[in-house]
Amino acid sequence: MAIRIPRVLQSSKQILRQAKLLSSSSSSSSLDVPKGYLAVYVGEQNMKRFVVPVSYLDQPSFQDLLRKAEEEFGFDHPIGGLTIPCSEEIFIDLASRFN
Known about the structure:
Mean pLDDT: 75
Low-confidence stretches: 1-12
Strand content: 15-25%
Largest sheet: 3 strands, mixed
Order of helices and strands: HEEHEH
Shape: globular
Number of strands: 3
Pfam families: Auxin_inducible
Helix content: 40-55%
Number of helices: 3
Protein name: Auxin-induced protein-like protein
Radius of gyration: 14 Å
Strand order of the largest sheet: 2-1-3
Keywords: Developmental protein, Growth regulation
Protein backbone atom coordinates (compact mmCIF):
# COMPACT_ATOMS: atom_id res chain seq x y z
CA MET A 1 0.00 0.00 0.00
CA ALA A 2 2.80 2.45 0.79
CA ILE A 3 4.15 1.86 -2.69
CA ARG A 4 0.91 3.00 -4.34
CA ILE A 5 0.45 6.23 -2.37
CA PRO A 6 3.36 8.16 -3.96
CA ARG A 7 2.15 7.11 -7.41
CA VAL A 8 -1.34 8.43 -6.64
CA LEU A 9 0.03 11.71 -5.27
CA GLN A 10 2.32 12.10 -8.26
CA SER A 11 -0.49 11.41 -10.71
CA SER A 12 -2.91 13.91 -9.12
CA LYS A 13 -0.24 16.63 -9.04
CA GLN A 14 0.44 15.91 -12.70
CA ILE A 15 -3.27 16.23 -13.53
CA LEU A 16 -3.43 19.58 -11.73
CA ARG A 17 -0.31 20.81 -13.54
CA GLN A 18 -1.75 19.78 -16.90
CA ALA A 19 -5.04 21.48 -16.10
CA LYS A 20 -3.16 24.61 -15.07
CA LEU A 21 -1.12 24.62 -18.28
CA LEU A 22 -4.21 23.96 -20.38
CA SER A 23 -6.18 26.75 -18.73
CA SER A 24 -3.35 29.29 -18.85
CA SER A 25 -2.83 28.77 -22.59
CA SER A 26 -6.47 29.37 -23.49
CA SER A 27 -9.04 32.01 -22.78
CA SER A 28 -10.82 32.00 -19.45
CA SER A 29 -14.31 31.48 -20.81
CA SER A 30 -16.54 28.76 -19.45
CA LEU A 31 -16.34 26.96 -22.79
CA ASP A 32 -12.85 25.61 -22.08
CA VAL A 33 -13.94 23.76 -18.93
CA PRO A 34 -14.77 20.14 -19.74
CA LYS A 35 -18.03 18.60 -18.58
CA GLY A 36 -17.67 17.30 -15.02
CA TYR A 37 -15.09 19.92 -14.07
CA LEU A 38 -15.13 23.45 -12.69
CA ALA A 39 -12.68 26.31 -12.81
CA VAL A 40 -11.42 27.78 -9.55
CA TYR A 41 -9.05 30.67 -8.98
CA VAL A 42 -6.52 30.06 -6.23
CA GLY A 43 -4.10 32.46 -4.60
CA GLU A 44 -3.73 35.24 -2.15
CA GLN A 45 -2.45 37.94 -4.50
CA ASN A 46 -1.72 36.44 -7.92
CA MET A 47 -4.67 34.24 -8.82
CA LYS A 48 -3.98 31.02 -10.71
CA ARG A 49 -6.76 29.20 -12.53
CA PHE A 50 -7.23 25.46 -11.94
CA VAL A 51 -9.74 23.16 -13.60
CA VAL A 52 -10.76 20.52 -11.06
CA PRO A 53 -13.26 17.64 -11.08
CA VAL A 54 -16.66 18.37 -9.55
CA SER A 55 -16.07 15.34 -7.32
CA TYR A 56 -13.92 17.67 -5.19
CA LEU A 57 -17.17 19.23 -3.99
CA ASP A 58 -17.81 16.08 -1.94
CA GLN A 59 -14.51 16.37 -0.07
CA PRO A 60 -14.84 17.85 3.45
CA SER A 61 -11.55 19.75 3.19
CA PHE A 62 -12.60 21.31 -0.14
CA GLN A 63 -15.92 22.26 1.46
CA ASP A 64 -13.93 24.01 4.21
CA LEU A 65 -12.14 26.04 1.53
CA LEU A 66 -15.52 26.93 0.00
CA ARG A 67 -16.79 28.13 3.38
CA LYS A 68 -13.66 30.25 3.78
CA ALA A 69 -14.26 31.69 0.29
CA GLU A 70 -17.87 32.46 1.20
CA GLU A 71 -16.78 34.24 4.39
CA GLU A 72 -14.22 36.33 2.53
CA PHE A 73 -16.06 37.06 -0.72
CA GLY A 74 -19.69 36.10 -0.16
CA PHE A 75 -21.17 35.15 -3.48
CA ASP A 76 -19.62 38.06 -5.36
CA HIS A 77 -16.21 36.83 -6.47
CA PRO A 78 -13.89 39.54 -7.83
CA ILE A 79 -12.82 37.68 -10.99
CA GLY A 80 -16.22 36.25 -11.78
CA GLY A 81 -15.23 32.65 -11.06
CA LEU A 82 -15.01 30.70 -7.85
CA THR A 83 -12.11 32.20 -5.87
CA ILE A 84 -10.38 30.16 -3.16
CA PRO A 85 -8.37 32.31 -0.72
CA CYS A 86 -5.35 30.10 -0.01
CA SER A 87 -1.88 29.73 -1.43
CA GLU A 88 -1.32 27.74 -4.61
CA GLU A 89 0.99 25.32 -2.76
CA ILE A 90 -1.62 24.55 -0.10
CA PHE A 91 -4.29 24.00 -2.74
CA ILE A 92 -2.09 21.63 -4.77
CA ASP A 93 -1.14 19.71 -1.64
CA LEU A 94 -4.79 19.43 -0.59
CA ALA A 95 -6.00 18.44 -4.04
CA SER A 96 -3.31 15.78 -4.34
CA ARG A 97 -4.89 13.98 -1.36
CA PHE A 98 -8.31 13.67 -2.98
CA ASN A 99 -7.43 10.93 -5.47
